[in-house]
Amino acid sequence: MREFTIGREVEFAQFPAPIEIDHSSYYLLKNNSTYLLASRVCPHMGYPVDVSDGEIVCFLHGWNFDEKTGICKHIPYEGLTTYPVFLRNGEFIALI
């Protein structure tokens, strides 16, 4: 796994927050005091997911994903690919 600096903690006020790393799109998710980086690609058919009314949605088939964990709300054994994120000296670091 490689470390990627996402940005300073103070730069993020709302979650999920869109992030770009190496030409790939992610969302930074917050679940209480823990953080995850979630792929913006639906695991079902590879269609892009987007935030709509505070939820992460795949508009191809209507799958909704938890905005804190990336787990599919309709099929709990499915979810967005996620990566751990931690804080170091006030900066978010993702392990991908």
From TrEMBL:
Please verify whether the record's keywords include Ribonucleoprotein.
Answer: no
The record's listing under Gene3D superfamilies reads:
Rieske [2Fe-2S] iron-sulphur domain
UniProt xrefs under InterPro entries: Rieske_2Fe-2S, Rieske_2Fe-2S_sf
- What are the protein's UniProt keywords? 2Fe-2S, Iron, Iron-sulfur, Metal-binding
Q: Where is the Rieske domain?
A: 7-94
Question: What name has this protein been given in UniProt?
Answer: Rieske (2Fe-2S) protein
Q: Does the keyword Iron apply?
A: yes
Protein species of origin: Paenibacillus gyeongsangnamensis
Name the source's superkingdom: Bacteria
